[in-house]
Write a structure and sequence with these properties.
Layout: H1 2-23, E1 49-55, H2 58-61, H3 64-71, E2 78-84, H4 88-96, E3 101-105, H5 106-115, E4 120-128, E5 131-136, E6 150-153, H6 159-170, E7 180-183, H7 186-194, E8 200-204, H8 207-214, E9 218-223, H9 224-231, E10 238-245, H10 252-271, H11 273-282, H12 289-295, E11 301-305, H13 308-323
Parallel strand pairs: 1-2, 1-3, 6-7, 6-8
Antiparallel strand pairs: 3-10, 4-10, 4-11, 5-8, 5-9
């Protein structure tokens, strides 16, 4: 009996061990717990939508690279650009809220600030002086040589007239007395000069460069930015800027991203006029790439932002205010005008 019981116990033990080994075999082993961290399903933050008005001509030229980069989806913000021929085409849209920002003449920017009770701020200066006196032949070498002459000009009642009058008076010439000034629109004046029907004119870029390309006898007599520097006692001729509608509700990050990309765009255009000219023409900021290629080096493109804006532009506003307070909205803009 003892032998039988021992035999039975041995058989049971062997059977139990076999069952345990079977349960641990690869085919029967439980699936191991996953140690892989699931991928994040959080979507990237949407880009800020920024609506910008761009003027054709030098004030808008610096935006061309940013417009191209935005079209390819490579910008930090999502920009929507609107181009226009005249400042009045943009100011209404800016005030109504259709635009968040706009590239405008600096005197228009100050006027809007005063008329909207501070709802427009200047973000950056983008162009310095872009005015040139052209001549058929070689008769003018200094401002004093304009005495007794007839000068055709564009920009009556706007920045060009105030700049011209200031430079003339600082050189001892009274407009309308010591020389005759006849104002015409830019297109007509460009045609008259290009066809040799007049001898002297004042035009901005790119109209000036267009005339130079059409008539080999026309040359630059005076660069009014240089003439301004000679008599301005430290103030800077600042003619173009980018402004922000203060109640646009853009975040500080969106504005900071814009300033970073705008600075990059202006530098690219300035340093790569050949490639940039194609973009300027593509976005119809000038009439052709050829015109843009000639205009870019003469457009005095800059990027001045932050505290340096007031330092650069305040003296210029003082000149405009003395010439005609209405040119900047009746009073000098206060510190609230400058975006911090």
């Amino acid at each position: 009996m003892k032998r039988v019981l021992s035999l039975l116990l041995s058989l049971l033990l062997i059977s139990g061990l076999a069952a345990c080994q079977s349960s641990r075999s690869p085919g029967n082993s439980p699936a191991p717990e996953s140690t892989t961290t699931p991928e994040s399903t959080t979507a990237p933050a949407p880009k800020a939508k920024v609506k910008i008005g761009v003027l054709k001509g030098p004030t808008g030229i610096g935006s061309a690279y940013l417009m191209e980069k935005n079209e390819k989806g490579g910008t930090l913000n999502d920009y929507k650009f609107v181009t226009a021929t005249a400042p009045t085409d943009l100011t209404g849209r800016l005030v109504s809220g259709e635009l968040d920002m706009a590239a405008l003449p600096t005197n228009v920017a100050a006027t809007l600030y005063n008329k909207t009770n501070g709802n427009v701020q200047i973000l950056a200066v983008n162009t310095l002086g872009v005015l040139y006196i052209l001549q058929n032949g070689r008769q003018i070498e200094s401002v004093a040589d304009l005495r007794g002459k007839t000068l055709f000009a564009t920009g009556q009642g706007a920045n060009p007239e105030y700049v011209l009058n200031y430079i003339l008076r600082e050189n001892g010439l009274e407009p309308g007395v010591d020389l005759t000034i006849e104002y015409k629109d830019s297109e007509e004046l460009s045609t008259l000069m290009a066809t040799g029907k007049i001898e002297l004119c004042m035009l901005p870029v790119p109209a000036a460069t267009t005339v130079l390309s059409k008539n080999a006898d026309v040359s630059i007599a005076l660069d009014l930015t240089e003439e301004w520097d000679k008599v301005s006692e430290g103030s800077v001729l600042t003619m173009g800027c980018m402004v922000l509608r203060k109640n646009s509700e853009l975040s500080a990050d969106a504005i900071s991203n814009f300033l970073k990309e705008y600075d990059e765009s202006i530098k690219y255009v300035s340093e790569n006029p050949g490639e940039a000219a194609e973009l300027v023409a593509k976005f119809e900021i000038t009439g052709s790439a050829e015109i843009a290629r000639a205009a870019i080096p003469e457009s005095n493109l800059v990027f001045i932002s932050g505290e340096k804006i007031k330092e650069a532009i305040e003296g210029y506003y003082e000149v405009l205010f003395k010439a005609d307070p209405a040119s900047i909205g009746g009073k000098l803009p206060d510190d609230g005008f400058y975006y911090k």
